[in-house]
Amino acid sequence: MILVDTNVFLEFLLGRRHAEDCGRLLSKLSRGEMEGVVTRFSLHSIEAVYKSDLLAGFLSNVDRSVGLYVRDTTTAEEAEVAAVAKSTGRDYDDAIQYFVAKRMGAEAIVSFDRHFDGLDISRVEPGKLLQG
Q: Which residue range is the domain that position 33 belongs to?
């Protein structure tokens, strides 16, 4: 099980430099060849910045995905995330990803964000994950 960070989806959706690797990873998750989790927080973040007519299709693909699960957080958990942010020195958006990764027993956080480095869950970029 991996946690897929927001920037992996945006890299793919916006056609950035690592879009091909991100697309391959997301396809594997969609087909159930790998298992991963995305936070509802990430989906809301994507909805806020991805200004495209393709947003509904993207969300439908996430919903139909066989190996990618959406993890909601409760208000009580979000209060815990605030404490995690303080104790780890991370921003709230990074802390919520880390918190959910810990709760789900994720082996790694898949992200381009180096703010995840130095935690007790490894950070791996999609290309490296697909190589191994």
A: 2-131
